[in-house]
Amino acid sequence: MIVMAIRDIFFATELTQEAVEKGKKLVFVATDRELEDAIKKKPALVVADLKDFQIESLQKAKKAGSTVIGLSSKADKKAEKVCDAVINKKEIKDKLPEILEQTS
Question: What is the pTM of this model?
């Protein structure tokens, strides 16, 4: 399972198409509480927009064993310590096929 913590509906739709084509199960969350509930199901991957979600929620995902990718348009030292990768939206669109292949 992949958790998408992204509030931008248009961007989320773009990511959904790629994941559906690869047969991946996606769960979208809009709040930190929803994210923390989804983490209890131990997703393989969490992709979170760093401007909308708290670092503490992402730390919980890491502790649960999830790979965490943070989306940010600028460098974020705090997030870089928690996330496996911090990339921008263009990069995630370019790298998503590869990321999905590596995600069980």
Answer: 0.88
Residues 38-97: tens digit of each pLDDT = 999 999 999 999 999 999 999 999 999 999 999 998 877 888 899 999 998 888 888 888
DSSP for 24-40 reads --EEEE-SHHHHHHHHT
CA 94 to chain centroid: 15
User: Using an 8 Å Cβ cutoff, are 57 and 49 in contact?
Assistant: no
Identify whether the C-beta of residue 45 lies closer than 8 Å to the C-beta of residue 6. no
Q: How many C-beta atoms lie closer than 10 Å to residue 21's C-beta?
A: 10
Q: Name all domains of the chain by residue range, CATH numbers in brackets.
A: 2-102 (3.40.50.2300)
For 23, the enclosing helix (H) or strand (E) is none
Express each pLDDT in 29-50 by its tens digit.
Answer: 999 999 999 999 999 999 999 9
- Evaluated on CA atoms 41, 42, 45, 51, the torsion sign reads positive
